[in-house]
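Aim 2 progress update. The chain analyzed this quarter is reproduced below.
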Amino acid sequence: MYQSLAPLQAVSWRDVSKDHADLSPQDQARYMARFHVQLQDGRMVSGAAAFVALWLVMPGWRWLGRIARLPGVTPALELAYRGFLKLRPGLQQLARRAELNKRP
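Predicted structure tokens:
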């Protein structure tokens, strides 16, 4: 969804799920476990902080990034994100089953 938008700053997308991602198995597993964004200054952020960083450069999403930067909001989003990560495997399994059921 984000890739279809024209960001306000350059964004370079990297699919770390592919074998040709030039990552060690440990780094690939780490990046697959949580959402990551590398900031322009080279720092890497993950989880809710990564979403906030992305939202701030995406048209239509900047308002959410600005709200998320208010005191206490990003930590609350991080707690919600960690909860989602626990549910994600089950949600992915449900999505796969739904996709299989749509096939003729």
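The chain has a mean pLDDT of 89. Residues 2-102 form one domain. These observations will guide the mutagenesis experiments scheduled for the next reporting period.
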